[in-house]
What does this fold into?
Amino acid sequence: MNLKERLLNGKTTIAIFGIGFVGTTIMTVWLRAGARVIAVDKNIDVLEKLRKGESPTNEPHSKRAISKGLKENKLIITSDHQTAIRKSNVVIIAVPVGLKNKNVNLTNITSVINSISKEMKKGIAIIVTPTIPIGTSKKIIKIIENKTKLKVEKDFNYIYSPERISAGHAVKDIEKNYPAIISGAGKKSTEFGKKLFNIISSKGVIEMSTIEAAEGEKIFEGVYRDVNIALANELAIICEKNGLDFWEIRNAANSQPYSQIHKSGIGVGGYCIPVYPYFLINMNKKSHEYTNLIRVSRKINEGMPRHAVKRIIEITNNKFRSKKKIKISILGLSFRGDIPDKRLSPTYEIVKMLTNIKFDIFIHDPYFEKDKFLEKRATITKDLRKCLMDSDIVILATDHREYYELTDSDMKKLLKNETVIYDGRNVIQKITKNKIIKIGKG
Ligand SMILES: NC(=O)c1ccc[n+]([C@@H]2O[C@H](COP(=O)([O-])OP(=O)(O)OC[C@H]3O[C@@H](n4cnc5c(N)ncnc54)[C@H](O)[C@@H]3O)[C@@H](O)[C@H]2O)c1
It folds into this structure.
């Protein structure tokens, strides 16, 4: 019986640890392929949702795959790591890896590895998917070998395969859009990984010569984006200072295929782009000159919320100086438009700066009505009208689709004529009556 047949008739079971954005997508793909899946998460709300046949994310296909999986007894939901390990032959780890004081924080992965090691049996395959610093897989393998006394390649397979998905089309990204990146601890693991991923990826796999190369691949993708966004931000600031319009110049420049200037914006958030550059910066701490461009890019991007607030205060100086209370509202908490993900959102930084100078802040976001990480002086609502009503300054921080539709007639009922709007994402096209300060436009 080949691997695909074993998966389809339930002889091979896949356990997925961490059912967040990435884990939900992986689970959906394997359920759609007909496999038996054990979904493992420590968050009770996530487990509750799954048990009700709901998806923890809004990704297309996932709700349907979950309810079908439950109906056909192909989806098991648990918080118990040990049970999941005992009942599975393939373990996919999809827990988040972030930063703590700009150093990698591997707590989530090591906690999963530690509990896996307690029940690990011969013949199991461990697949790690989060983006991790180069060299981390080797450390993970060592931990498993020390704790279990099993040997990689001989007793178990280890595969590193970074996930390369984006919100909105994540399932399609795995199934159709991109080849899977595969690397194994040795020949046996790599061969297993290739067979497994070829079942779900119609674009096939890219086999990397080493695990370190696969770890580097995903970091490079993120660093490429960070450096290019920093370039766009620098060009935008040059335009602001010299009375030019970055957006007009960018459009014209990008009419040539060799120019792909990115968008400038009020800040770079999420758990990917602001995080991965530090994996390379920290790896080369002793020889900082190797990471000059990466470090400067990070500095530019991390400075964007401050740059925006400084510019708003400069231009609306009279409002800030007048003793009367002014209302400041911010549109968007998500770090990117049309997704319910607020991790490392630049909005937090903007709120912090403004509340530090004693302003109350009103935030709108279509996805959030409460947030425990916001400062005390900030309130968040899903009611756009309530947020905007009588604002003196509006800061547009996220390119949610609904903000593109805002028009003069919407604003007439909500804002005063002298209200100033700072557009940190180049979104506003249909408001002409209020003063608009646009990022990148001098
Ligand atoms: N979000 C993205 O767009 C994206 C894209 C590609 C790759 N990645 C990578 O994938 C990783 C995961 O990202 P995500 O967006 O899915 O995270 P997430 O926060 O959406 O989900 C992580 C899930 O793991 C669970 N979890 C954490 N520790 C656990 C533990 N010890 N045991 C069981 N469950 C645990 C959490 O409860 C949560 O449900 C990131 O660190 C990143 O490297 C993310």
About this structure: Residues 219-442 form a domain with the Rossmann fold fold (CATH 3.40.50.720). Residues 17-23, 40-43, 46, 94-97, 108, 111-112, 130-131, 163, 165, 271-272 surround nicotinamide-adenine-dinucleotide (CB under 6 Å). The longest strand covers residues 13-17. The chain has a mean pLDDT of 95.
